[in-house]
Amino acid sequence: MALILDLVEQAVQMLLVVAIAPLLLGVTRKVKARLMRRRGPPLLQPYSDIWKLLHKEAVLATNASWLYRTAPYVIFAATWVAAALVPTYATGLLFSWSADLIAIVALIGTGRFALALAGMDVGTSFGGIGASREMLIASLAEPAMLLVVFAVALVAGTTQLSSIAAQMIDTPVGLRVSLALATFAFVFVAVAENGRIPIDNPATHLELTMVHEAMVLEYSGRHLAMIEAAAAVRLVLYFSLLACLFFPFGMATADKSLAAVSLGLSSYLAKILAFAVLLPIGETLVAKMRVFRYPVFLGGAFAAAALAVFLQFVSRGF
Amino acid sequence: MLILALSCVAALLATAALAVALGRTASASPIVYAASLAVSFVLLAGALARLVADPAQISTLTLPIGLPGLGAHFRLDALSAFFLVMANLGGSAASLYALGYGRHETAPRRVLPFFAAYLAGMNLVVLADDAFTFLLTWEFMSLTSWALVVAHHDEPGNARAGYVYLVMASFGTLALLLAFGLLAGPAGAYAFDAMRAAHPGPAVAAIALVLVLVGAGSKAGVVPLHVWLPLAHPAAPSHVSALMSGVMTKIAVYGFVRIVFDLIGTPPWWTSIIVLAFAGLTTVLGVLYALMQHDLKRLLAYHTVENIGIIYIGLGLAIAFQQNGIPWAAALALTAALFHVLNHSLFKSLLFFGAGAVLSATHERDMERLGGLIHRMPHTAVAFLVGCAAISALPPLNGFVSEWLTFQAILVSPQLPQWGLKLMVPAVGALLALSAALAATCFVKAFGITFLGRPRTRAAEAAQEVDRISLAVMFAFALLCFLAGILPGIIIDRLGPVVQGLVGEMLPPQSGLAWLSIVPIAAGRSSYNGTILLIFLASSATLTAIFVHRFATRATRRAPIWDCGYPQLSPATEYTSSSFAMPIRRVFGTTVFAVREKLDMPGPGETRAAHFQVKVFDPAWRYAYGPLVRTATKTADRLNPLQFLTIRRYLTLTFSALIVLLIVVAAWR
Amino acid sequence: MSLFTDIGHLLAAGMLILSFLLLYQDRITATLNVFAAQAIVLGLAVGWQAQLQDAPHLFVTAAIALVVKGGIIPMALHRIVRRLEIHREIEQVIGGGPVMLVGLGLVALSIMLVFPVAGSVDPLAREDLAFALAVILLGLLMMITRRNAVTQIIGFMSLENGLVLAATGAKGMPLVVEFSVAFSILIAFIVFGVFVFRIRERFDTVDVGALDRFRGDRGDES
Amino acid sequence: MTAPLYAILLVPLLAALLLALVADYRWGAAINIVACGLTFAAGVSLLLVERVRTDVLLIDDFNIYLVTLTTFIGFTTSIFSASYIGHELETGRLTPNFLRFYHALYQAMMGAMNLALVANNIGVLWVGVEVATLSTVMMVGIYRTTAAVEAAWKYFILGSVGIALAFFGTILVYLVAQEVLGQGLPAMAWDRLLREAGRFDPRMLSLAFVFLLVGYGTKVGLAPFHAWLPDAHAEGPTPISAVLSGLLLNVALYALLRFKMLLAANPETLDVGRIMIALGLISLVFAAFMLYRRRDIKRLFAYSSIEHMGVITFAFGIGGPLANFAGLLHMTMHSLTKSAIFFAVGHVAQVKGTQRMADIRGLSVSHPVLAVGLALGVIAIAGLPPFGVFTSEFLLISSTFSRQPLLALILVFGLLVAFGALLLRLQQVIFGEPSGPAGRVKASYVPLFLHIGFVLLAGLWLPEPMVRWFRIVAAQLG
Asked: Residue B576, SS3?
């Protein structure tokens, strides 16, 4: 019985992340447009975009291989599973122990791996550009992300997301220098991984500046839909991670009473909505970077995270 | 079992003799490879049985050969059994693969005898139980592999590769010899048992450890002793490259583990800092070197260096923990290292087999001249892709598990008391994280440029899928990569007794756990479950696909690629491997490798071709070996005139030597 | 007894002095004559030892010294020198003055080496030994300060004189005669070598340096 | 049971006289082989009969295996030489009456070396070494080319000076000995000297050793007395190079070690070990660097001989049971291996018609078996397993490092440098596109592979009596 409940919970969680993903995208776009004095698309526009794409026929390049066709599903699945394993409104998910934070980071990597390969499959130079830049960003961002993981794990004494969150809630660690640094680094990484300004501009289609868009340039129809959905889910994933790691308050931990759960749910939604509003604000404040200034940006994140880890090694008090 | 192993080795040597006898006959190659396949399979089965059945049992044997008064000691314990499994897994796979691949061999007489002898040598190293036998077999292994490296001596660069290889190899052997001399003491107690019994003082232990790091490291490819590796591994025939990269470097690791953990036992804690420093350096530099390559086999060889670094990180941590009395953590780190040994032998062999398939299909190793092979050789592509994913440490494959364990070991290291370690370990962790990401980049490049896109040359267009046997081997190894990834608990449990024997602790048994997940330390702390992850991924992907195909359209139209309005884009417009690596080169290369890029772009209206040239310098050559060679040459030139003196001058030499000696006698007393 | 020892001492010292003379002789013919003189003194010294130790076989050695080294070989060398038309050549000794100093140093060294342990052995043998050692070293020094094959041979022969002196000085040493014979043969070989290889015709000079024109690895490119 | 003992001296003597009369070179070669075979048989039978000790002759643990080794290598070399000179006659480098000379001298040299080995008398020892030297001098010059004559002349002059100094040393030893043992033969007999060495005047003994070291050291080819060695090896007939490296150097070293035993038995004496260490390391490192600039393949291996003599001298200088054992083993292994290498080199030089390595390439393509032989030889001499040299170097380095780390490092450095040079040349010669004539080798490979086989065997297993002798001698060497 309890198992069934857990399964239900897990399923809810999975559906939840997929369900709200386009909405978040819509929110960010809307806010951004508003900040630019545009009216902007309706909030639910992403849903209809994906829906439309799903029903269009997919145009494949003549020399596209099976990898090109399967990649979108792999990407989506990897991102989705990763997102599904991050506790959103309640800790102690049924399967949350099957992959800890490191594994989740690696899962995102799996998705990226597939995406980059797919970008190179048809053999246009855009795919190449996109893939090589994406991997550059990844190879700068992933270590920073792992260091963030280290820092958090050292504070909480575990890499288990549920346990981390539970720990943070039950025994409030208070304000920690290392955690502050880690949060800072995490935000940078999240911006980079989601291809937001200043790293990448999701709205652009100017070949020389685009990264993510360049990779998926050849995609159309349902495949493109999958990739767009994956991108949206990834945004949710990072928001939930941010919420779960650094702002876990309000999560339902021990008691799974309806009240607690609903509290957790609402607080979760509030949190990620807040992030979805803050992100575009941040984006409008800065300008897109040249490719070769990424190292500076992500290097900052890396340095901050590394500093956090060092502090943890020096003394658990930080 | 030990008897069996030794007789198997004897059989391998007999096979080598047989190969010599068979000479040029057409049937030589299948016979030899079949024989070595059979023998190494028997060895594999035996060692596996031993590891599963009673790993704790230790069987020894002394033959009346070898060093006079000492005899040749052999010993089979859990550690040797594990490495026997690893070695013969690679050995039998390579033999099987060669049954197909070996048909293309142009000079079988230069390969066959040494192949069998090489297998014998690697097995003997693992079994040796005294310094003399160990070094003898160790160098025998180097010697036979040297012969294999120079098998195609007429191809440019191979002779040089062989030269650098053998010189470095004997350098390493001499370092090990010095270490043994130190451990054996002036009395010359060369048997490993005697060394185990004698507990060296901290100073001796430290010096010995450094010497072993140098000696075994030069064979394993620890930076800056790696220079021979990217030259030699690609030069050999591909199934041998697989053995050299996949197995021999691990035998070197075995040497390190055996001597440091078993014989020395208690090196001072600070030696771990040295090991960790070199390991971190090796990890990052190795993968960066690999990224700069465009020769497929050389890329793989350089990447071996990175994995060796990861393994040594585990070993360094194990030393640190053990010397600080945290055996369970030492067990964790050591398990991670040994697990990675197995994993790397799996996917690196797989990748070299794949590279060999590409080579035999296109006669090309240069990725810039390949591409689009996924259409021409689909099966190879699948296997190679699995290898790439595994080596990039992507879940749910095996590469991730060992890296995950290493990370877990790093995460418990704040318990280490010493400051040096407090600062070194997180730095190494950061380097490991960096290298993990770079490895993914490296293999996106390797697979993308070689198999994806459009063929860049005729050779790539005309490629044909390779023979069934090679494919079978590749798929078997791909499957093993999967299994090791989703069922790591089983392997960790097999490693338990091995680790137990070395650091006196082992990880808690995993196979009993629910859902087949692994919990290295405590359930609340960290756990990973490849099986569930795989199920999750597979189910969600298929569900989505079904959903999409069911409820949305599945209509598909083929169309030419988008050419920005320029019809028939030539393959030359594709991204090349050097252009793919360009951003990384810009970011890391300019500082690390002193990369020089020369672009000669014709102005508008000019009809001449544009030229782009990249020079990547290996700092090891630049700052270590180059000067060394120059000094040696200069010294030789300085001394050479002494060959051309007149008799009178020679007499003067004799005379002055005599006078000096006389003065010594006069001054004495 | 003291008289005897004094005479023995005297003869040995005479050889030493002749060695010094050899060292700075720069005309070949003169060098040959001085060598002959040294050989004769050697013969006398050996004869004296034979008398002293009443070891008749030593007279053979003495005779060899007198006849072969004092007579035949110098004559042969005179002929060679004349044949090679270098009997008028002035051969410059390398660093004449310093060489004398070095020679003195060598004498001092040899005395230092042999004397202090004048233990049970009778002093005569010791002194002879010291002088013999000095003669040997001086001969060697001469060999390396001359460029001319003939003078080098002379240097070697005076070295060998020193050896014979030492050998005969060693009381009751067996096979001394055989040794001296063997050495005479050796020297005969050397002379023979100069003669047969006809250094002049082969190398256009007696300068031994020229022998080294055809040096092992010279002139091979890579 | 002195018959075999006299046989190894008389057979060569008679053979030498006989060969001086035989005009036909085929007969000469045949007689040469037969005589060497008989000598070898006698040498082997020495192992079976019980030890002999007379006033002049002596068989003990030290020289018994050296005699066997010497006669064995003499035998194999005579076989090799038979085919070698046949070719030399075809190419007209030698004429039959020179060969008469050559064979007679060959036997004379063998006899002299045996004499030096079995002598129980420091004077006879000296005579043996000198006769061997002089006979080889003449064989070195036998080609009569300017280079050969120069080599012979250099060898002759330097050798003679060595002879003289060694003789002076011998006189000194007699002087110190006769103070204790009284005048006459006893004061020159090994067994007595060794027994009474403790009572000798240490200072004079040390002085004597210095002269002997320089004198016999010249024969051993230690730097800086080595000058004659490379040219003598390079310019003489290859069989002579083989016996020079394989035997004569050993015999000279044997003489030196005999005297070292005296000093070892006398604690008061100067610690000559240091001097030997210094000379050994100088020779090793010097030769190692000289290897790089060699163009002539025979000269290359001549320098490698200098290098190994340095290693051996170093080993005895270090002393101690392990190092001395290693030194003795290394002596044996080096003579077997180096003579094998010279056999191979001889074949190479004959089929390719040159000794310049620059003109010899791709041997493994044109003459695979020969290439394998050469490669095995070089690998063995470079101290790689599973050959005997590895065993001795293993013992030497490991035992030295635990006692004298610094010296061991220098030793390792020298060995590594030398290895680099040898391997470089080997690869140049056997790999790449074949060059020059590809004619078949018209000689038997038996001697070559016989030697290598023995070296290989010794690398894996040493016969028990040999080990015992080595141990005893090692103990005596202190």
From this structure: coil
Which pLDDT score is estimated for C196? 61
Tokens of residue D46, six digits: 């020495």
Q: Is the pLDDT of residue B164 over 80?
A: yes
Count of CB contacts below 8 A, B vs C? 41
ipTM of predicted complex: 0.91
C104 domain-assigned: yes
User: Using CA of residue D389, residue D390, residue D396, residue D397, what is the dihedral sign?
Assistant: positive
User: Taking a C-beta distance cutoff of 8 angstroms, is the pair C125, C169 a contact?
Assistant: yes
A105 touches chain B (CB under 8 A): no
**Interface test with chain A among B527, B529, B550, B597, by most A beta carbons within 10 Å:** B527
Nearest to A142 among B395, B436, B555 (CB): B436
The reply to whether C54 touches chain D by the CB within 8 Å rule is no
pLDDT at D235 over 70: yes
* Cβ–Cβ under 8 Å, residues A219 and A124: no
Calpha distance B225→B279 (Å, rounded): 12
Q: Residue C27's closest CA among C91, C80, C85, C86? A: C91
- What does the pLDDT look like over C165-217, one tens digit per residue? 888 888 788 878 778 887 877 777 777 776 666 554 333 344 444 444 444 45
Contact D271, B624 (CB under 8 A): no
CA distance D17 to D35: 12
Residue D358, in any domain of the structure: yes
For chain B, which residues make up each domain, given as ranges? 325-543, 622-667
Residue C205 is predicted with a pLDDT of: 41
Of residues B598, B397, B359, the one with CA closest to residue B488: B397
pLDDT of residue B126: 95
* % of chain D surpassing 70 pLDDT: 100
pTM of the model: 0.93
Contact: C179, D207; criterion CB under 8 Å: no
Closest CA to C20 of C108, C129, C101, C110: C101
D416 and B170 in contact by Cβ < 8 A? yes
**Those residues with Cβ within 8 angstroms of residue D470's Cβ, 6 or more apart along the chain or in another chain:** D325, D328, D329
Residue C215 gets the label, from left (phi > 0), alpha (psi -120 to 50) or beta, of beta
- Write down the mean pLDDT value for chain D: 91
Across the range C135-158, mean pLDDT stands at 87
Q: D306 is in which domain, residue-wise?
A: 271-478
**What's the confidence (pLDDT) of residue C182?**
79
Q: Which of D397, D417, D460 sits opposite B181 (nearest CB)?
A: D397
Q: What is the mean pLDDT of chain A?
A: 88
Asked, for residue D178, whether it belongs to a domain, the answer is no
| Residue C221 scores a pLDDT above 70 | no
Count of domains in chain D? 1
User: Residue B605: left if φ>0, alpha if ψ -120 to 50, beta else—which one?
Assistant: left
Q: Is the pLDDT of residue D455 over 80?
A: yes
* C211 assigned to some structural domain: no
Domain ranges of chain A: 2-314
pLDDT value for B485: 93
The total of structural domains in chain C comes to: 1
- Chain C and chain D share a number of CB contacts under 8 A equal to 105
- C106 and B659 within 8 Å at the Cβ level: the answer is yes
Q: Is residue D443 part of a domain?
A: yes
Question: Quick check: B658 and D397 CB within 8 A?
Answer: no
Q: Which residue in the set D165, D178, D234 is minimally distant from C172, CB to CB?
A: D178
Exposure pattern of C23-38 as b/e (b: 16+ CB <10 Å)?
A: bebeebbebbebbbbb
User: CB contact, 8 Å: C106 with chain B?
Assistant: yes
Tell me the two tokens of residue D412.
Answer: 């390792």
Among partner residues A78, A84, A135, which is closest to B441 by beta-carbon distance? Answer: A135
- Which pLDDT band, with edges at 50, 70 and 90, does C3 fall under? low
Is residue D284 situated within a structural domain? Answer: yes
Who contacts B211 (Cβ-Cβ below 8 Å, separation ≥6)? B175, B176, B178, B179, B182
